[in-house]
Amino acid sequence: MSQPDPPPRLSVVVPALDEANRIGGAVSRLQAALDGPLAGSFELLVVDDGSGDDTAAVARAAGAQSLRLARNLGKGAAVRAGVLAARGELVAYVDADLAYPPDLLLDLVAALEAGADVAVGSRRHPDSVVASDGGMARTIGNRVFSGFVRATLGIAQRDPQCGLKGFRRSAAVRLFVDSRLDGFAFDGEVLLLARRFGLRVVEVPVRLEATTGSTVRLGHDALRMARDVLRVRAWAAAGAYSPATADGAGRSGDRSEPSAGPR
Fold first, then answer.
1. What is the pLDDT of residues 45-64, one digit of tens each?
2. CA distance linking residue 184 with residue 232, whole number of Å
3. For labeling, which of 3, 60, 104, 188 is most exposed (least CB within 10 Å)?
């Protein structure tokens, strides 16, 4: 009887909605960045969030695995489905626009293999280079919303909404099995759960490149995301999540540990 293939060192989850025009290029860039350092030991999983185009087919043609949700549920639902389907010892997710260059995934890997349970990109890290955050209005909006998330959920990470995060597999499964939000605010919920479970979280500097085609609408989505953050706080207060680890308030909630600067 043949033995099952060993799990890859890294799984990369890419949530995608109507991204047929650029998902093939994104998959190629990810493969190029990871083929050397992680040759033969990574998988790319594109999660098609109920697209109306050929996103899943284009992703497969480019060499990625694909998972298609029957209908559009939201970025949180797509990331959750991908994380729980991933086989890697480490699991990370990035946005389809690759606003954060793919080689930054290697910095997440380094932080996780150095002992972190969760590694999160941060545009507020002193070593980060932010070329564009989508214009002045979006930059201010992102900072205001980040402050709201931190204050409401009691998390220490300076940039909870950064779309570049990585996890040890055991941490990823625990966090995403317990998560409930399907929309854009799911990142804050995941970090709240990391604090409750006493997981070690480190912040990793990023380089943010100018991109187009964001699916976040500043006014409408900000209100919905704020409502979802308040729902998370209410759920936590009502005991809707798994019990917190005894030291959960002391490891990742009181402080966010910075990692080393860019390689």
1. 999 999 999 999 999 999 99
2. 13
3. 3
